[in-house]
Amino acid sequence: MNKLKYTFITAALSIVFGFLIVAPTIDIRAQKEDPFEAQIGSIKLVNQPVTDGFAQLSQSSDISVSIEYPLTHSISDSAARLPRFTAELKPGKPAEILDQLCSLDPQFAWVRIGNAVNIFPAASRDKPDYLFNRVIRFAKLSNVSSADKAVIQLVNQLPGPRQQIATLQTTGFTFSEPLTHEFRDVTVRQALDEIAQILGPTYGWQLSGAEDFRVVMFHTRLRPGSPAKVGALSRR
Description:
- By secondary structure, the protein is α/β, with parallel strands linked by helices.
- The chain is built from five helices and eleven strands; from the N terminus they run H-E-H-E-E-H-E-E-E-H-E-E-H-E-E-E.
- Strand 4 and strand 5 (116-121) form a beta hairpin.
- The longest helix is centred in the first third of the chain and has 29 residues, at 2-30.
């Protein structure tokens, strides 16, 4: 009887410990790597603005990169010229690359929001009246088919004075099905990030234009070059 009882207890313990050994292995495999921990190779600029460096980071990583270019006073003004640099950045994690780029051109600052990096004019950081810093207490998108329509519907719900914004219409930025989505206590910047992330993990957006004519365009990844030209627009 004792031998039988001993055998039963041993078998039960073997089963329990077997589960304890296997379970952590399954959990480890299920974990996703943080793209902000990835090592990025050297980024080179040859008579280029740092915005091209941000684009190189976007092209070589699995993070969402969005950028707010400095706005001119009026859409009739010539586009602001960004300083150009020739430099080779040290390899490192995305945060280290971003710090190096913003050190080269301090007019830009960056912040991480979830899987997204937002690059914006440093001078706008503490300005609550800057459109993309404004807090949305609540807004709801209802059955929107594309990212550009989502932006227009979102901005139409902002409280206070009517805000102008336009979107550059491009193909490939429609949702898999009509989108209904709520925003609570987020900035306009964070809301646009959420819209981009619904499209895909590396999708982002860019702001260009002027204070009297803001233009937003979505992208799969940020590309080197000048801000998007004002073309076929959907204007609020």
